[in-house]
Amino acid sequence: MSDTQDTTPPPYRLHSSLGYHLSLAARLQERRLEDRLRQIGLNRTTWCILLAIANEGLSQPSDIAVFVGIDRTATSRALRGMETDGLVARSSGEEDRRTRRITLTEKGRRAVAQGTPHARENGELMAALLSPAEHAELIRLLDVIIEGTPADLSAL
Fold first, then answer.
1. Residue 51 belongs to a domain
2. If residue 63 lies in a helix (H) or strand (E), which one and from where to where?
3. Whose CB has fewer CB within 10 Å in the chain, the N or C terminal residue?
4. Where is each HTH marR-type domain found (predicted)?
5. Helix or strand or coil: residue 92?
6. For the purposes of burial, counting CB atoms within 10 Å of the CB of 14, is it exposed (0-12), middle (13-18) or buried (19 or more)?
7. Coil, strand or helix at 42
8. Is residue 86 helix, strand or coil?
9. What is the pLDDT along the chain (156 residues), one digit of tens a residue?
10. CATH code assigned at 91
11. With the C-alpha atoms ordered 153, 60, 78, 21, is the resulting torsion angle positive or negative?
12. Rounded Cα distance, 146 and 137, in Å
């Protein structure tokens, strides 16, 4: 008999991983919302950008990117498409012409009004699976993960 111990790490079990569960839950929520938003000509990214402008009062692309959690390139690409679709208008800043200011058009305001019941319903469906205490605890735990994530990983 050998005195050496097997130092091979146990196999990685996908269905036991936190990442798998987080990803699957997020995909279920996103897929349901995307299906509803698609009916009004939006996707999740355009929806989040509309909310950043309409509900948070953000007007600078860099602020919108941080709020939505996407990079500046993706934000600029989405804003160009949204401008083409008539959802937002872009204008140059008053003091610095290089600065861009984003505002909602009437069509963008209607899209927010149409999408809000879908988003609210989707969130309520997910929350109904948990007790109020479980819901609060899940939000708290997710915040721990989000806030504890190193900056190089959180810039998605």
1. yes
2. helix 61-68
3. N
4. 15-147
5. strand
6. exposed
7. coil
8. coil
9. 555 688 899 999 999 999 999 999 999 999 999 999 999 999 999 999 999 999 999 999 999 999 999 999 999 999 999 999 999 999 876 665 556 899 999 999 999 999 999 999 999 999 999 999 999 999 999 999 988 888 665 455
10. 1.10.10.10
11. positive
12. 14
The DSSP output letter for 129 is T
Task: Supply the DSSP symbol for 91.
Answer: E
Q: How far apart are CA 42 and CA 108, in angstroms?
A: 10
Number of independent structural domains in the chain: 1
Token pair listed for 147:
């806030």
Q: Are strands 100-104 and 88-92 parallel, antiparallel or unpaired?
A: antiparallel
Cα separation values, 146 from 30, 151, 154, Å = 18, 10, 7
Output the six-digit token pair for 89.
Answer: 């208008």
Q: Give pTM, 2 decimals.
A: 0.78
The secondary structure element, H or E, covering residue 75 is: helix 72-84
Answer yes or no: is 22 within a domain: no
Which two tokens mark 145? Answer: 């993960």
